[in-house]
Write a structure and sequence with these properties.
Number of strands: 4
Order of helices and strands: HHEHHEHHHEHEH
Strand content: 5-15%
Largest sheet: 4 strands, antiparallel
Helix content: 40-55%
Mean pLDDT: 94
Number of domains: 1
Oligomer: single chain
Structural class: alpha+beta
Length: 215
């Protein structure tokens, strides 16, 4: 391992160890839309099922809208104190982007046009034939992958985060007029911690890991 690679690994380890969920934020800190866009772009390198990238983001940084969100999110104060709340949504029609996504693979020389056409047709047939509940389950898995990357990217940029599942998804969809094809998955508060976060205990890896058998 080179010295540069070792330093990069140390940086990753530091981020992972120093990232903690923060629920108290400095309300005076603002994050520019340019910087927020950069963090989302970096996070979007996350893998997804068939590379369909079903995640969609509603970034709520308007003070009035955060107040509107507050009761929907069980009055969690980080909703109004954080610089923004990112709603991570799943697109039930993400397979319709297969043509655009895989055309870039053709442009990059990774597959031929003929292979792409067959691949896209199979994806649209397969995903298009799944019930919404199954698609939402797939999207939820993919949302977890990109959200974890987003939390680490945010930490690397000097920000703190907390993922929130404690909110009313139905009321959120209604209040923010989501299209029927977009389903809420989680909320992510992001900003600067008002006070240092503390670590939380973890079970020993030996207690949660098995090798080849559960015996």
């Amino acid at each position: 391992m080179s010295h540069v690679e070792e330093l990069q690994l140390q940086d990753i380890y530091t981020l992972m160890n120093e990232r903690h969920s923060v629920r108290s934020y400095d309300p005076t800190v603002k994050i520019s839309r340019e910087e927020m866009t950069e963090m989302l772009e970096l996070s979007a390198t996350a893998p997804s099922s068939s590379n369909l990238q079903p995640w969609r983001f509603l970034v709520i940084d308007d003070a009035d809208l955060k107040q509107k969100l507050l009761p929907i999110a069980n009055n969690q104060q980080q909703v109004i104190e954080a610089s923004a709340v990112i709603a991570v949504l799943g697109d039930l029609r993400s397979f319709e982007q297969a043509e655009a996504i895989y055309s870039k693979s053709v442009e990059g020389g990774f597959m031929t046009e003929e292979i792409k056409q067959g691949f896209v047709e199979r994806l649209q047939k397969t995903y298009g034939g799944l019930p919404p509940e199954r698609l939402h389950l797939i999207n939820t898995f993919d949302a977890g992958l990109i959200t974890m990357q987003l939390m680490l990217v945010a930490k690397a940029k000097g920000y703190d985060t907390v993922p929130m599942g404690g909110y009313n998804a139905e009321k959120f969809a209604e209040a923010f007029e989501l299209p029927e094809t977009l389903k809420p998955i989680l909320l992510l508060a992001i900003g600067k911690a008002a006070k240092p976060a503390h670590s939380t205990p973890r079970l020993p890896v030996e207690q949660v890991t098995y090798w080849n058998t559960f015996k």
